[in-house]
Every structure is written in C-alpha cells, then in structure tokens.
Amino acid sequence: MHTLSDAIFRPLANYNFLLQVEGMYDVPCKSVKGINQEQEYEYIQEGGLNDRVHMRKKKQSKPYTFQVERYVGTPYEDIFIPDRVFNMPLLLIVSRYQEFFLKPSRIYKFNGCRVTSKDYGEFQSEQSGFLTESVTISYDTLECNVNNIDVEPPQLLFKGDIPAVHGQGAALMTISKAVSSPYDRNKRKWPEVSSAKKYYGI
Fold first, then answer.
1. Quick check: 16 and 29 in contact, CB under 8 A?
2. What tens digit of pLDDT does each residue of 22-78 get?
C-alpha cells in the first residue's frame, strides 16, 4: 500500500515507459502527452444578487485525445496510419525501474482508439537531430491501473563471493566462468622469489 513517505521519497519517474500497440508492437516513443479528460458543462446563472453559478453536465461534443511522438528507425513499419481503428486497447506501461516492465507500477489503458491526425516530422539542414513523427489518437475511455505493491527488480543472490546456483545467479555464474577461464589460463604466474631479490640481492 502506498503511503505519504512513498510519494515523497520514492516518486514515480516519467521516463521509464513503454507504449504497447495491438498487444504485439512495443513502440519506441520520445513522448506521450496530452492525456486529459475534460468534461463539458452548461453554466446556469441565477437572477438577483446571487454570486453562484450552477453547472450542469452537457453531452460530450469532442473526443478525448492524446499525442504520441515516436522515433523513426529502420526497419520502419507504419502502424499509426491516419483513420486506423485499433482492435485492442493501447497500453501505456510505466515502470519504476529501467527496462523492467513485467510488473509495472502503473498501466494506462486506452479503449476505442483511432488515429485522427499525423505529423510526419520536420527536416532541417542547419542543425542535427532525430527524425520523429507525431500522431494524435482519440479514445473512448481511459483506465488507470495502479500496482499497490511495488515489486523490486530481481536482485542477484550471492553465497560468499560467488553467485548462488539458482535463478539469475546461476546464469551469471555460467557467464563468469566462460569469460574468466581464458584469462585465468593466460595470466602471468609470478615466481615465489622476485627477480629483484634473485639477481640484485635486495
């Protein structure tokens, strides 16, 4: 369960995120922004000297949207085609730890998504930079699932000065043996009596 101390001393970073499209595309994004849900209201003013304004919710006249700015790489596959309707929800996965998305801290689930507009980037000869594309995606509903139990990333288990023989430690021990064995065989064997003592008597 999250407490006030967690919010103060362990805030969630905004740069460890992953956008999953159709359950099979992990899109490398520069930013995901504009996520908001603004309701529309009708304002009713009373007569006389009343200083209050009553609010009555109106029917939604425009869809909810958010913007995705993605890097363009090779091989390139255009999955954000204008007017494309996605069959599955888009998942914005946010993790507390870098490249650890198996048990994230928060998942934003966008249902009923459609690509409404697309910007194919900007080209400039005066300065260097990465080519990016920006798309605007509309959605029907948004669900925010919070992991109340923040799972720590897997830690290496050690017995003495070597990794344990199970889990990730076993894999690390195998790699360590494969890498260190050639160096152990080829390393210089120093004599029991130093050359200085043998030849110079010191």
1. no
2. 988 888 889 999 998 888 899 988 877 777 888 999 988 889 999 999 888 866 778
Please give the backbone phi and psi of residue 38, each rounded to the nearest 5 degrees, phi first: -100, 125
| Contact present, 28 and 15 (Cβ < 8 Å) | no
CB 64 within 8 A of CB 138: yes
Short-list 123, 122, 126, 92, CA closest to 109:
92
The 10s digit of each residue's pLDDT in 140-197 is: 999 998 876 665 555 555 555 554 544 445 544 554 555 454 445 544 444 454 444 4
Look at residues 134, 24, 27 and name the one whose alpha carbon lies nearest to residue 73: 27
Residue 77: phi and psi, rounded to 5, are -130, 120
Contact 68, 131 (CB under 8 A): no
Closest CA to 66 of 135, 143, 146, 145: 135
Query: Amino acid identity of 88?
Result: M
Answer for the pair 139, 32: CB distance below 8 angstroms, yes or no.
no
| Cβ neighbours for 173, distance < 8 A, ≥ 6 positions apart | 162, 163, 165
Q: Is 125 left (phi over 0), alpha (psi -120 to 50) or beta?
A: alpha
Vertex 1: Cα angle to 8 and 20 (nearest 5): 85
Residue 44 has which token pair?
């009713």
Tell me if 104 sits within 8 A of 94, measured CB to CB: yes
